[in-house]
Design goal:
By secondary structure, this protein is mostly helical. The protein has a two-stranded antiparallel sheet with strand order 1-2. Helix 3 crosses helix 5 and helix 12 runs antiparallel to helix 13. The chain is elongated and about 90 Å long.
Length: 321
């Protein structure tokens, strides 16, 4: 057991930890790639038995049974003397003529498996190593920020907003928000209650999981000003998500400023200027919206405000935190 004590180094050395994390994350995709390679190799092995089993002593030795053929194709895959020891002895037929089909058989297998599928395995492992390296650097930066007393701003919807931020145009963002609204609207009522948002956000495939509390619900709906009888309609939901995206950008800029290197570079200054511009544009947008009224239109008055509590379980007996 003492021989395994060296494994403790993996947790202490960051470079070794990156490699282990990359290999761990790549287990499933690499196994899938190896499974495809095994299927292709098995298919070629069966074809090899059918084509070369009766081709003299060489064919019987290399392709006499399925498992012989499988090992032969594995040799071809590794590139260990496959052309001289396997392919060329099978080129000539009993009449002394060269069989071009043999060349097509082995070359196609070599191209598919050795040149393509093996490169896929390497690409998958390289991609996971890059991701593990980025995560390790981010973890180190967060630890340094915490040691310096810098607090990284986070919001309950940040995992969702990070995925939603990859839009191309405003129309694309509208489409994504509309799709999200339909996913959350399980009863097809064209409105979302707190229960639907609470349960729906938890079911989304994001990490970490989103657990919406009553306080979070009141915060994103501006103390339920953006609700109708306690529920959020499609138009208000679009307004909420766009507003949260703007706040998400501001938080990301703030975090980037706190994690920016203090080596005299201009990256921190550039991020600060972008943050000021974003805040200024947000204030202009809020000022314009306040003159136009809430997203529900001018008809939203005292009567509607009085009916906000209906259908919302985010009171003292709700599902909130």
């Amino acid at each position: 057991m003492r021989a395994f004590r060296i494994l403790r180094l993996f947790g202490r050395l960051s470079n070794l930890r990156q490699i282990i994390n990359a290999l761990t994350a790549a287990i499933v995709p690499v196994c899938n790639a190896f499974l495809i390679m095994g299927l292709v190799t098995s298919i070629y092995s069966i074809l090899g038995v059918s084509f070369f089993k009766g081709s003299g002593d060489v064919g019987e030795e290399l392709f006499g049974t399925f498992f012989r053929a499988l090992f032969t194709m594995f040799q071809v895959c590794t590139g260990d003397g496959w052309s001289d020891d396997v392919a060329r002895p099978l080129f000539r037929t009993e009449g002394g003529e060269i069989d071009a089909g043999v060349a097509v058989f082995f070359v196609s297998f070599h191209v598919i498996v050795s040149w393509t599928l093996l490169q896929v395995v390497v690409a998958v492992m390289l991609d996971n190593f890059t991701a593990a390296s980025d995560e390790e650097k981010e973890r180190v930066r967060h630890q340094e920020a915490q040691a310096e007393g810098t607090v990284v701003a986070m919001h309950v919807l940040d995992p969702l907003l990070a995925a939603l931020a990859h839009f191309n145009t405003s129309a694309d963002l509208t489409s994504r928000i509309r799709t999200l609204f339909k996913v959350l609207d399980v009863d097809d009522s064209e409105s979302l209650s707190f229960d639907e948002m609470h349960c729906g956000f938890q079911k989304l495939r994001v990490r970490p999981k989103i657990v919406l509390t009553c306080d979070d619900y009141d915060e994103i709906t501006e103390n339920q000003r953006l609700t109708h009888k306690g529920e959020v309609r499609a138009r208000e939901f679009d307004h909420i998500m766009r507003r949260q995206l703007k706040l998400y950008v501001q938080r990301q800029m703030s975090n980037a400023m706190s994690l920016a290197p203090s080596d005299g570079s201009y990256s921190g200054t550039i991020i600060f200027v972008l943050k000021l511009l974003t805040i200024e544009m947000d204030e202009i947008s809020q000022h314009t919206t306040s003159h136009k009224g809430p997203p529900g239109g001018p008809g939203r008055g005292v009567d509607e405000m009085d009916n906000r509590g209906g259908g919302n379980n985010c009171g003292g007996e709700g599902m909130g935190g």
